[in-house]
Amino acid sequence: MPDPKAYVNTRIKEARLGIERSMGEDFLRELERIFLISRQIMAGKMRAERKTKKVGSGLEFSEHREYVPGDDFRTIDWNLYGRLEKLFVRLYEEEEDIPVYVLFDVSASMLMGTPIKAVHAFQLASALSYVSLAHLDRATMIPFSASLESLPPPGRGKGRMFKMFHMIRQAPLGGVTDLEQTARSFVYRRPRRGKVVVISDFLSTRGYEDAINLLRYQKYSPIVIQTLSPQELSPTLNGDIELLDVETGALKSITVTRNLLRAYKQELTSFTDNIKRFCQDRSIPYFLSVSDERLEDLMLGVFRKGGFLK
Amino acid sequence: MSWLGLSGGFMLQAFGIFAGLIGLMYLLKMRERLVPVSAHFLWERVLKAGQRSLIARILRRVFSFLLQILILLTVLLTMGDPRPKKASVKAQRTVILIDESASMKTTDMPPVDDEPRSRWQKAIELARKVVISKNPRDEMLIVTFSGMPVPQSAWETEETSLLSALARIKPRDTPGDLEAGLRYVSEILYKEKNSKVVVISDGALPEDKGLYWPPVPKECKDITKRVDLTGLNIEMLRVTPKSETVNLAITSLAARPLPTDTETGEVLVRAMNFGKKSVKARIDLYVDGNWRESRSFSFSGGEEVFLLLRLPLVGTDLEARLKAIDGTEDPLELDNRAWAVLPKKPDPRVLLVGRENLFLEAAALLIPGYFEKITPDEYDPSVVKNCAEEGGAPCNLIIFNDFVPSVLPPTQNQLYINPQGKPFTVAQEVKQNLQIMWTGGKKKHPIMEGVSMKDVNMWGVSSAFTRQKGDVSLMQVDARGTIFGILHHMKDGRRMVGLGFSLKDSDFVLQISFPVFMLNLVNWFMGTSPGFLATHPTGIPQRFALDSDSIVYPDGFNLEIPGRNLTFRPDYVGVYTFNKNKEVVRKIAASLLSQTESDNTPKPIMISCKKPAPWKAPAIIVAKKHSIPWKILLMILLAGVGMLIMTYLRGVWGAILAFLGILTLGLFALGLLLLLGFPPWMALILTTFLILVLEWFTYNRRITV
After folding, report:
1. How far apart are CA A7 and CA A217, in angstroms?
2. A269 in B contact zone (CB under 8 Å)
3. Residue B32 gets which letter from DSSP?
4. Cα separation, A18 vs A117, whole angstroms
5. Do strands B139-145 and B93-99 pair parallel, antiparallel, or not at all (unpaired)?
6. SS3 of A188, please?
7. Which of A63-67, B69-73, B205-209, B637-641 has the lowest mean pLDDT?
8. Distance CA A115, CA A291 (A)
9. What CATH number belongs to B87-243+600-625?
10. Are B317 and B589 in contact, with CB atoms under 8 Å apart?
11. Do residue B703 and residue A252 have CB atoms under 8 angstroms apart?
């Protein structure tokens, strides 16, 4: 029987190799192509800048407010004073960039599958971050497993990608998934309100509901992307086997029959449907991503569905 | 139970080794394959919904192991080739006696796939059924009978050897002789207690071959018993034709030269209609393959037709073909053709050396061909070269009358009348009147045929011969070791006939026998004996002095002949060519020419008291071996299938029933195969295969986890 730890270490090495390969020029070119696709989809809509509810020094008129001492005289609406003989100041909508936090799961369960789910999650996170940065947003990529090791501040510009790549190279892979703890450690650091993309397989006994709810209560806009491998969706097991849980190292003897496989697939479908329903009930965008799916196709789906670019 | 394959000890050893290996593999199998997954909890939810009995899992594996051991056991048993001990103790010896006579070639059996079938094909089919239905230890011998019985196999227990022997046999063109076949079998099975004879025949056998059939009825006790069948268990399997048989046949064919015209031959053909309705037919004669003569005629059922035809004696091979010209189908074509060898045209060149004798010369005038006479003074051995004719051919017969030359002539054929010296050993001369009382001689010799010397008187000088080794006395008065009469003597390859008396001192020349004697003598010397047989009936042995080294059969088969004398039995119709140094020295024609065989209407085999033999329907034998207890087998099958279906139940019972279900189905398959007549080793191997398939298909379908 192979040593479970040794097995996980082997998978970690393979995942690192896959991530490292994804940081090459070819991948960056692919990211640029995805960005261009996103521009086509967004044509006719507002440009990259986001409107916020803040009023300030923007160019577009928002509303009037009574003058209070200390206000800038240049904002007083003298025409209105002429009609009403009261001092009002003109308020303009302030234009502001929204930070995008892309949290992607690198726990031991994400090391499974062919292609490896963690590599696929990294590529997905990179693509989302790149598109955000290209749209003049601030963005950051944060790997997680049991919790967040660090929370690098979101930055601007495409050049930021290389700093994020460097940070990811240093990040540890493996461990147990704990979404709630991750969300908690994220919100405790009080980063600016923005979009939080959570990429994970969500295959954790500790659940995902509390984590998503916590982000929502803290006024973040979560987007959920569930990543599964083809082997998980359609396993080809048969006969007497011993299952190894790569996160916990627990073993389980079972005899896989066709009936059992059918039941497993039904259970998995039910599991993903529950996540989807949970997100829909809370107007949270949800995407299911298979690790062998083309990145371009997935991103197209994300852009078309909306919620990410608006 | 006895083992014909591997020994019991060897099987035990092999079982120990392989069972150990299976056990080791089973233990290895217990170490389950490790499959890493992202998380357990989904699988656990599924397992909660299904069966999760640890005992059931263990039982299933243990039963799987037991089945593997069982499979190993059946494979080893298969290799051991088990046979029931009962069969080995009471093995039966069976002789299959098959009629291979000419009538078996009759094509009047019900067709199969629109292909007409002969009685022979049906007989072989019956014989195959008998072989296949035998018990494993039973010994069988295949014997065929036609003119004489021929064993076609050794005593065999293996079906394959017997079946291949059956495939090799071909029917002969000879009449059948069941009596000879049964006599042979009765000698083979003499005092065999557990024995049986299975006779397969169409019943077209001579009626005069009466046989006792056991038990011998009281009224038959006084009849001479020719074959002792007492104690023999005889079964008769009859090849029954589909309808009434029609057959036209040539029953005789003979050819001879005309005595008065040596250029012409006379051919006798006899044909018979063995059917019941009238048929128009034609006989065609061919010589060396070329048509010569035809005669059309009509004969009613059972009628025989004689035809006498004349042909020029040119060529050797005469063939007569009989054909129905009114569209009647003849199912036996073998007897529609007959072959004969035309006699040689006689061409004697005779030289008479001796004193004048008008009676002798008058008799010699009857001899066709060349005849010349000279006095003893004119005789010189060189005269023989041209037979006293200027530029003539050599003599082939010299007659010395009251004269013996000092040097024997080179001519092969010589007649000495009253030789008083060599080449015969003359014991004494008798100079007195004799009252002839012939005491012996070979009266059936061709020279003496039709010659009566009963009233011959002699006086004067006569010679008495001392018989030498190889001499043949044709007519004799035996007196104190000497022979007085006519002697045939061979010396240095010359054939000599000596008359021990002078013609002038005897009234033999005045007898009517004398010209006959002279004619016979010349014919015999020239090889044109009246006993010449133009054709030989098949199946009857012929004895020849060997003057050849090989025989070419009608189908082209070449047989080398060792030895000096030959007893040759033509089994197939046609012309046989005897060669010496690749040159033809003799031809023999063989034809069926048997009324009893051509009359291919099946008749009951009669015992001496005219009691028909008990024919048995072949189906009885086959049905006896294949009585399968279907009800029991069906119950076993249903039980097995039921238990196998129950394996889809959950829990321990599912595992137990799966095991029992597979075992029951295996038992069903084994029983069925054995009852269907499969050999035990094949039944075991097929059962093993079935168990493997069932185990393989159901292992992961059983809900035991």
Report:
1. 39
2. no
3. P
4. 10
5. parallel
6. helix
7. B205-209
8. 6
9. 3.40.50.410
10. yes
11. no
Q: Are B654 and B702 in contact (CB under 8 A)?
A: yes
Count of CB atoms situated within 10 Å of the CB of B320: 26
Q: In which residue ranges of chain B is CATH 2.60.40.10 found?
A: 248-345+594-598
What is the distance between the terminal CA atoms of chain B, rounded to a whole angstrom? 42
For A207-242, the pLDDT digits (tens) are 899 999 999 999 899 999 999 999 999 998 877 788
**Is residue B587 over pLDDT 50?**
yes
B255 in Cβ contact with B263 (< 8 Å): no
Neighbouring residues of B503: CB distance < 8 A, sequence distance ≥ 6 = B357, B359, B360, B401, B402, B417, B418, B509
Contacts of B475 (CB under 8 A, 6+ apart): B438, B441, B443, B448, B453, B485, B486
Amino acid at B284: D
Q: Exposure of B48 by Cβ count < 10 A (0-12 exposed, 13-18 middle, 19+ buried)?
A: exposed
> What pLDDT is recorded for position B609?
43
Using the 8-state DSSP alphabet, how is residue B346 labeled? Answer: P
Helix (H, G, I), strand (E, B) or coil at B38: coil
Residues in chain A: 310
DSSP assignment string, A125-173: HHHHHHHHHHTT-EEEEEEESSSBS--PPPB-STTHHHHHHHHHHHS--
Contact A257 B700 (CB under 8 A): yes
Domains (range + CATH), chain A: 4-45+98-305 (3.40.50), 53-95 (no CATH)
Is the Cβ pair B34, A267 closer than 8 Å? no
Residue A255 has pLDDT above 60, yes or no: yes
Average pLDDT over residues B533-549: 77
Note which residues in 112-151 of chain A have CB less than 8 A from chain B: 112-113, 117
Which of B293, B389, B352 lies closest to B522 in space, CA to CA?
B352
Distance CA B334, CA B330 (A): 10
Which chain A residues have a beta carbon less than 8 Å from that of B648?
A: none
Q: Say what the ipTM of the complex is.
A: 0.81
Encode pLDDT of A165-205 as tens digits: 988 888 889 889 999 999 999 999 888 888 899 999 999 88
CATH superfamily of B248-345+594-598: Immunoglobulins (2.60.40.10)
User: Rounded to an integer, what is the distance from CA B555 to the centroid of its chain?
Assistant: 16
Residues in a beta bridge with B211: B607
Q: Which residues of chain A make contact with B701, given a CB cutoff of 8 A?
A: 257-258
Q: Residues 6 or more apart from A35 whose CB is under 8 A from it?
A: A130, A131, A134
- Enumerate the residues of chain B whose CB falls inside 8 A of the CB of residue A117: 38
| C-alpha to C-alpha distance for B202 and B101, rounded to whole angstroms | 9
- Considering the four listed CATH numbers 3.40.50.880, 1.10.3720.10, 3.50.50.60, 3.90.180.10, the one that applies to the domain covering B349-526 is 3.40.50.880
Strand bridging mode A138-144 / A221-228:
unpaired
Query: Could you tell me which of B645, B625, B626 has the C-alpha nearest to residue B637?
Result: B645
Pick the more confident residue, A235 or A27: A235
What's the token pair of residue A144?
Answer: 């997680």
Whether the CB-CB separation of B69 and B19 falls below 8 Å is answered with yes
Beta carbons of A203 and B46 less than 8 Å apart? no
Confidence tier at A57 by pLDDT (50, 70, 90):
low
Q: In chain B, whose CA is at the least distance from the CA of A272?
A: B42
Range list for CATH 3.40.50.410 in chain B: 87-243+600-625
Return the residue of B nearest to A260 by Cα.
B46
Cβ contacts of residue B160 below 8 Å, gap of 6+? none
**Buried residues in B129-152 as b, exposed as e (16+ CB within 10 A):** ebbebbbbbbbbbbbbbbbbbbeb
Q: Are A226 and A201 in contact (CB under 8 A)?
A: yes
